[in-house]
Amino acid sequence: MGTLIYVDTNIYLDFLINGRPQRKAEDAFSLFNRAIRCEFEILLSKKIKTELYPNIQGNESAMLFKFLEPKLRYIEPTSEDEEEAGKTDTKDTADALHAILAKKYGAAFLVTQNMRHFKKFNSIIASKLPSDI
Question: Which of 10, 46, 84, 87 lies in the 20 to 30 Å Cα band around 22?
Fold first, then answer.
């Protein structure tokens, strides 16, 4: 089993949406490819899926998740997790929830392209760019 990671929504979007910056799309592809090669196991929360679906069309995400299925560990946020995210010193409770879930379920780190948003959660869990792992 590879390193357990939590992948932020923006990484999935970089992979799935045409027109995203090429370097980010390549980083997302590389990360998912490395997961398939057993370097990583990915935590996937229901919160990620609810953030993805308004931003994508068709079955792109279904195909990606089917491809990654052997390397995914599905998790569900609880009302306690959501309450804890609401108590953080930030208006961005969605990102706080991602950080809380990553820590709760034992991720080594949270992978994101949005380091600016996740820097404030480094006391909960370290965040890394996909190109830095």
Answer: 46
- 10 Å CB burial of residue 45 (0-12, 13-18, 19+) is buried
CATH code of 119's domain: 3.40.50.1010
pTM greater than the 0.90 cutoff: yes
* Residue-number span of the structural domain to which 104 is assigned: 3-132
Question: In this model, does residue 92 exceed pLDDT 70?
Answer: yes
Residue 61: its pLDDT value, please? 79
> Which of 53, 46, 43 has the alpha carbon at shortest distance from 17?
53
> What is the tens place of the pLDDT at every residue in 21-63?
999 999 999 999 999 999 999 999 999 988 988 888 667 778 8
How many domains does the chain contain in total?
1
